[in-house]
Hints:
The chain is of the alpha+beta class. It is built from seven helices and eight strands; from the N terminus they run H-E-E-H-E-E-H-H-E-E-H-E-E-H-H.
Amino acid sequence: MAYIVGLTATDGCLYTGFRKINFKSCDRELVDTYRGLLGRTNRIKEQTTRTGGTAYFVDFGDSALYRWFESIGLTPRKSLTLGPLDVPDRFLAPLLRGLLEGDGTLQNFTHRSTRSTYPEYRYERLWTYFSSASRPHLEWVQARVATKYGLKGRIEQMPRRDGRHDFFRLKYGNRESMRLLPTLYPVPDVPKLERKWRIWSDYARRHGLS
């Protein structure tokens, strides 16, 4: 359920007045996992995005779950107002996994840091980002991760696009990502989004990390 909370906090929506829950993602696998973990059989529907892509979603009524979501910090129209979530420390890792797989990013790439001095030297990077339009929410994530795992991270404000709200991301660099990600993916069969987990698992395999 902590994983479900993380996904709902990012890609989910609580409809005001209807006690209805919606979860939407461009990854059908993630919607199917969300539905399955909640034991739902509602049909997964499709919707064309503004850029011409396809988004998948499931929605259903569940007054008890809706009220429970509200009790731990989720609210309707939460994108700009999301703050702390009432999640115990022992469930922090699956919550973070849900937040990462909902709106976060894993970047793994190789680049040349000093081409003129060391033209053949290449450095592989692994960066972890948690993203949100609510800076207080990311500040809460940063504080919880610092307390639990001793990792600092850094909050960055992204360039503002016309007609859009401010947007922020919490970044963990190479060394911190190598400490954080094993806690989010402790074993291969945890509920997860395969394509994001694969970025970490391939990196871990290449570098001999457990």
